[in-house]
């Protein structure tokens, strides 16, 4: 079964992509272009309202909080409430409701300049974070459950593709000919309201998740109708029987909490892998490289008025690499190892070239090339394959808890980078790359020596690979004693 045989699945990928991953990517990149104008608004507001002229460090602190509060909004729903909301409302209904905070945030952004209120921007960023955080999880779960097995790997990778598309769109709309001006920047930040409206109008055309209809509501007829709409008109009795078997297994195992996940020593390596992979997504230095791209472009002689156009190249570079990853979906272990290894090399070379820029006139051009190579390494590696990992490492009972841990680590990492990165730049300048280098090298080594190949393996088979890798015995175990929900089951392979 190919994607051409499932046209509604292709439509679902686009509709879900613009309502979740796209919003996340756009909200990150769109803040770069109007940063000067927003900081001016912060100072003018304080002068007119309180009669206080803020110092530079105070403005920088408020600006960092405006950027980082997006992460707090994402953490509030994606990590704390996502599982219960998904179970209560269902996938499709929750996706529709999730557009409400995005629409309210867009209205606040549009009115913030007129109202002379940077607090409205803070509130809007928090709401946009809620939308992006819940959207990333719900859209991904919905797509995976709607796609046939053969397409689920590619569907998972499209998350990275739409994040990259969102970043590129934020950069493109931020140029001075469009919305990157002193008068029009609120329209740039409120653009996410338009994409939310688009999902709100088109999502009702899609069915609810077939597995949710069968497993949560017990409606076999609705499940079969949804499968026929998504996959074509044929008999799906076998697929529905597989879903019912999953329901029986889930009922026997129960749904485990985050605390139970943390306490289970039998799956500690899987949990550690999720923490390593998701923390490295934010601590690898990708945002630092994006930040320094402006400085490097200045060094090679690109004027201030053209910096936004040059930055478009970085966004287009990431988008192109993400697109190619969808086509060439290969070994996850190799993709992650190769990606972080190449990123480590680029960070070392970039630090050296940044140091030598004042001594050699042609060195900034080397830095520019290294920036593009670093972004390519990230987009064709960790960016594309990290998100679906918790769903592949854990059984159904632990999947929700694993996704909760992963998204929590991701949002906390993004918040820390947003708050601390400006301080690091001020104190140690481009040597901050060496801090990110530590995380890239550590993750690269972890992938090489502590992480097995997981392609085309079930969670129990992956658990056996982890056990074989981290025990002294050289013999492959013929069975694996797995402990779930306080019981021991012997599973033969």
Task: Give your account of this protein's structure.
Residues 13-455 form the Major facilitator superfamily (MFS) profile domain. This is Solute carrier family 2, facilitated glucose transporter member 5. It catalyses: D-fructose(out) = D-fructose(in). InterPro entries: GLUT, MFS_dom, MFS_sugar_transport-like, MFS_trans_sf, Sugar/inositol_transpt, Sugar_transporter_CS. By secondary structure, the protein is mostly helical. The protein folds into 2 domains: 8-206, Up-down Bundle (Growth Hormone, Chain: A), CATH 1.20.1250.20; 254-471, Growth Hormone, Chain: A, CATH 1.20.1250. 74% of the residues lie in helices and 2% in strands. A hairpin with a 2-residue loop joins strand 1 (479-484) and strand 2 (487-492).
Query: Outline, from the CA principal axes?
Result: globular
Helix content: over 70%
At the first level of CATH, what is the class of the largest domain? Answer: Mainly Alpha
Number of helices: 25
CATH architecture of the largest domain: Up-down Bundle
Find the CATH topology of the largest domain.
Growth Hormone, Chain: A
Q: Which structural category fits the helices and strands?
A: mainly alpha
What value does the Rg take, in angstroms? 23 Å
Beta strand count:
2
Subcellular location: Cell membrane, Sarcolemma; Cell membrane
InterPro entries: GLUT (IPR045263), MFS_dom (IPR020846), MFS_sugar_transport-like (IPR005828), MFS_trans_sf (IPR036259), Sugar/inositol_transpt (IPR003663), Sugar_transporter_CS (IPR005829)
Catalytic activity: D-fructose(out) = D-fructose(in)
GO molecular function: D-glucose transmembrane transporter activity; fructose transmembrane transporter activity
